[in-house]
Design goal:
The structure is a homodimer. Chain A contains five helices and twelve strands. Chain A has about 240 residues and is α+β, with helices and mostly antiparallel strands. Chain A has a single domain, classed as Aminohydrolase, N-terminal nucleophile (Ntn) domain (Glutamine Phosphoribosylpyrophosphate, subunit 1, domain 1), CATH 3.60.20.10. In chain A, helix 1 packs across helix 2 and helix 3 packs antiparallel against helix 4. Chain A is globular. The mean pLDDT of chain A is about 95. At the A-B interface, helix 3, helix 4, strand 11, strand 12 and helix 5 of A face helix 3, helix 4, strand 11, strand 12 and helix 5 of B.
């Protein structure tokens, strides 16, 4: 399973996701789900993947080859909408190809993507791409999108997220959303990856991988759990 | 949809649930999902239902009739385990009967139950009953059980709940778990119902229905959301 989320806010974009894949509980491995594509000063693009690992790895490989050859590269496109269309079409083709094979044996080859970033001349944009190749875009009303095991991490987003939320707070919110999912679902697990993109910077280097026993992360988790308990102790509730 | 949860703790039991039922988004209604059966001084039993409404209403009707006639009444049983067996068998029979009819047309008649309470001579016990009639019991390690739309309300439980949690804190935790689910999923909605049972009291009167615009509830929600935001602002997180 996978959990990835991304926000498109006034100050920029925030991405977060886990790296656990599993095929049954006895086949668990670590694969990153966050990929970046950049052209200095003009293109800063992030792709996060959920679903069939073969499909998403193949997708990323195709995107990289296109960039290397320069032919059909997403780094030559002038709008994030066109990137979403290109990536969506590629995703659909790969899924159709795998599903149509003689020995597909009913395997689910589908996947969902989060695609965010900025191309010079546009504001940052964020999309969720479906296995069918179509996609939706985040808005000021709904500034966050999720793929994968999304329910456990949603309550904190629904309470906190709004378009004006400062990036630093959005990053903390992302950590808590990821941690809540990790705690409640074994199939989502560390290392975690987060990336913060400041609007108009065209810089995707503010990225960090958090390992399972990262002291700062464990400290954050403890601080949060204690804080929630304290908050609960002082919470005025209806009389029962 | 439905969300119900219950905890079996050192000091007693806490139950919480919504009252929304829906068959599609244009057929939403209010039906309570929490029922009580008592015999003063010896039996205090709570049933919460999710799933097919016709099935759960029929189940409750059968249990009431058995109590009224005295024949096969759960209030004559000496252990909550036997009550769980009786209710589980009845649930399975009702589902089988509905599913086997000529015109069942592939409808899902199944349902899940939470059954908790205390019978004199035993400590309070809590069960989750499956459509197949079998059931699991909560333990000191896993003191809470949920049915229905359970994911949104799980993170707060996973952070807070333990067997020694005082009843008053457990009640607050229940309110937050319900509120998180209501906020994130339209098909779970108020009025909400909560019930607190103090061990050895055999008294199920500490019960409250919370209407949609209940001032105390809205006040709690605001306090919680603000508190979470403040907590987030002071949260030490890994550097990115």
């Amino acid at each position: 399973m996978t959990y990835c989320l991304a926000m498109n806010l006034q100050q920029g974009l925030v991405f977060g996701g886990d790296t656990r894949t599993n095929a049954g509980v006895d086949h668990i491995a670590t694969f990153r789900k966050l990929y970046t594509f950049t052209k200095p000063g003009s293109h800063a693009i992030v792709v996060m993947c959920s679903g069939n690992l073969a499909t998403s790895q193949s997708l990323i490989e195709h995107l990289k080859r296109q960039n290397d050859s320069g032919e059909g590269s997403i780094l030559s496109l002038c709008s994030m909408f066109d990137v979403a269309k290109h990536v969506g079409d590629l995703l659909r083709e790969l899924i159709e190809e795998a599903s149509g094979a003689d020995h597909s044996q009913g395997v689910d080859f589908s996947g969902n993507l989060l695609l965010g970033g900025q191309i010079k001349g546009e504001a940052p944009r964020l999309f969720q791409i479906y296995p069918q190749g179509n996609f939706i875009e985040s808005t000021e009303d709904t500034p966050y999108l999720q793929i994968g095991e999304d329910k456990y991490g949603k309550p904190i987003l629904d309470r906190i997220t709004n378009y004006a939320l400062p990036l630093e707070l959005a990053l903390r919110c992302t950590f808590v959303s990821l941690d809540s999912t990790v705690k409640s679902n074994l199939s989502v697990g560390p290392p975690l990856e987060v990336l913060v993109y400041e609007k108009d910077s065209f810089d995707l280097s503010r990225c960090r991988r958090i390992e399972e026993y990262d002291e700062d992360f464990l400290n954050m988790r403890q601080h949060w759990s204690q804080g929630v308990r304290t908050l609960l102790e002082g919470l005025p509730t209806p009389n029962v």
